[in-house]
Design goal:
globular, mainly alpha, membrane, MFS, Growth Hormone, Chain: A
Length: 430
């Protein structure tokens, strides 16, 4: 066992300096992700007992993200990418401070906190996506995302349990509120630590300064449709556990315990899939994740009790990392292909990709809110996730269509790309 561990450590050390720094930066920041993703939603639930406010908060976040992607493209002309990346991480702590300072959770206050968190995520993800594509190649992207997902899943064991226990150890509304304030302060300190690690990297800004385009290669439009379906579920994957557990399982302690069940096994499985799988395995991995998510969502909809929620969370622990592990390398590989064909910088596609995600996020959030206000809260919680999970199964067929399109590009004699490169691109999309 020790020998295998040393082998894996040596494999990590064999990667480039920027690869290692990027992973370590994201590892430190991952310590606050469960707080941002889960316990902010739980805080809104505790103080308002209104799931619609959680969705509105999430919608505010997702509105701020594409706006900040666009702003970030402008800022990259004047500021080093490390500064922008670090600012994005630290703004997440600022957003939580705004939330904790609200005397009452009005829609205006929730919207302000959500937009600020959206600014944080926009700066974080736009720069992180560019650094991922510039730091990795198609051969080590499965490993990169598998390694990140492994650490994220391990952290998902410890952090929710520790925070849930900490909040539950307090008695009375004021003490519980103070517990959230302490957690917010810790989050801010951790984001500062992640920023310090980031500055150890030798990251360079995109060379091309034009990022906004309105016409793209047909293969890119197919990826945008895939991004829309991914966006459909993103809001629910973040907030659904908090809303369901708070309504059905009870308090934050149950939230932490439920999130921790099975996470260790999931982490080990995801790491080895990322470490040893080939680019040709990505669609299989993607399909398994989508199917597990659909099964969990349907079980929750049919049972809608404590057992159903636990089953949903267990399957979600496997489904989400599997989907991400496959999706992001496919996205980056398509960017590799179309950026060479159209002779554009990669950041232009990272920026445009967010429009597809936002369209899906908006549709997903509106689906929940329509069911919430026209039928009932329980109906929305019970069936909205299942509807969206089943719709997401279309992503399997869209992925296959992307593969077919890639094969056609490879067979076109008039293509400007060398035949060897395009054949490899089509194969890697399988």
């Amino acid at each position: 066992m020790l020998k295998k561990l040393i082998t894996e450590v040596n494999h990590f050390k064999s990667q480039s300096h920027n690869f290692r720094i990027l992973v370590l930066t994201n590892l430190v920041y991952a310590l606050v992700q469960p707080v941002i993703d889960i316990f902010v939603a739980a805080y809104i639930m505790r103080n308002s007992d209104d799931t619609s406010k959680v969705v509105i908060y999430q919608l505010a976040i997702y509105t701020g993200i594409p706006i900040t992607f666009l702003i970030n493209g402008f800022l990259l002309k004047y500021f080093n990418i490390r500064k922008l990346y670090s600012t994005g991480m630290m703004l997440s702590g600022v957003s939580m401070i705004i939330m904790m300072s609200l005397k009452s959770l009005s829609l205006v206050g929730i919207g302000m906190a959500g937009i600020t968190m959206g600014l944080s995520f926009g700066l974080y993800w736009s720069n992180r996506d560019y650094l991922a594509i510039s730091t990795t190649n198609d051969d080590n992207r499965n490993y990169y995302y598998g390694l990140e997902t492994f650490f994220y899943t391990i952290i998902a064991i410890v952090i929710p349990f520790a925070i849930g226990w900490f909040i539950q150890s307090k008695t009375g509304a004021e003490d519980k509120h103070n517990a959230y304030v302490i957690i917010t302060a810790i989050v801010f300190v951790i984001t500062m630590g992640a920023s310090i690690v980031c500055f150890r990297g030798r990251f360079e800004n995109p060379v091309q300064k034009k990022y906004i385009f309105f016409k793209f290669h047909p293969l890119w439009y197919k990826l945008l449709s895939l991004a829309t379906f991914k966006g459909l579920a993103q809001g629910f994957l973040v907030t659904a556990p908090a809303m369901l557990i708070f309504k059905i399982l009870g308090e934050e302690g149950a939230l932490g315990n439920a999130q921790s069940i099975g996470a260790l096994l999931a982490a080990v499985i995801i790491y080895f899939i990322g470490r040893f799988s080939k680019p040709a395995d990505r669609i299989k991995t993607f399909s398994v994740g989508l199917i597990l998510f659909a099964i969990g969502a349907c079980v929750n909809g049919i049972m809608f009790n404590q057992t159903g929620v636990i089953i949903f969370l267990l399957l979600l622990l496997m489904a989400k990392p599997l989907m991400d592990l496959a999706y992001y390398p496919i996205q980056l590989r398509v960017i590799d292909i179309v950026s060479k064909i159209e002779k554009r910088g990669e950041f232009a596609y990272i920026l445009n990709h967010e429009t597809g995600l936002y369209a899906g996020r908006l549709l997903g959030a509106v689906t929940f809110l329509v069911l919430y206000y026209t039928v009932s809260e329980d109906f929305a919680l019970r069936y909205a996730i299942g509807i969206i999970a089943l719709l997401q199964l279309c992503s399997i067929f869209i992925s296959k269509n992307i593969i077919a399109h890639g094969n056609r590009i490879a067979s076109e004699p008039e293509t400007t790309e060398p035949e060897k490169v395009m054949e490899e691109a089509a194969t890697n999309l399988v």
